[in-house]
Amino acid sequence: xxHGLAQGQCRALGMPDLPLFVIPHPLGGLTRDEVEQRAELAxxxxxxxxxxxxx
Length: 55
Fold this sequence. Notes:
mainly alpha; 55 residues
């Protein structure tokens, strides 16, 4: 749901190829540890994208 909205915003702002890093929804009701686990999972693809020479 939010991924499609984010893609639309990227296109509207002239950045159609901007990479999006998606995490599972919702975050509400999770413990701090659970949120941190999700953040760690999202960080790995971001780091790989940076290492690959952010285009």
